[in-house]
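Please review this pair:
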Amino acid sequence: MRHIVLAALAIGMAAALWLSPRGYMLTNMPQVALVEELPPWADAAKLGRFLDYSAILLPKTERDAGTVRVRPALGFSYRELSILRVPLFAYADQGYVLYVETPKQVQMVPLDADYMKLLEQEAGQPLAAGYRFPWWKHMWGWAFIVGFILWWILQVRAERREAFEPEPA
């Protein structure tokens, strides 16, 4: 059993190292998740001026380098902690933001309650109703830690069992 667990861990880690766009070192990367596209009747020019006035710029990761969002959208700013290209957890950073994306960066502005009301007024509908951040997408790295602990327990049990078995005569 312990060999199967170890093989599964090795295959999973190799796949994560090959496919994951995250870095090898311990990183705490800010990112933006799309919450909702703004309706087409919202004035994109007015929202763009708002972004130009007070924006925060984030560099894009390799994974998102091809994504371009010209029309402003409602997003959720968070930070993801990862190591060895696997995520461990994510937590809220700026909260709700209005953002656009270029090939190299994300331009965003945090929205407090007053700005959120103004944005909902511009959109003509409630925004982010019932939105919940999908934290489980950023915690799958713990499976490797739990798997390694399971393998270690099985290994110690097997070694103890072998230590107490009588040698054949």
Observations:
- Residues 142-164 form the longest helix (23 residues).
- The beta strands are 27-37, 56-59, 69-83, 86-101, 105-110.
- The mean pLDDT is 86.
- The two ends are 28 Å apart (CA to CA).
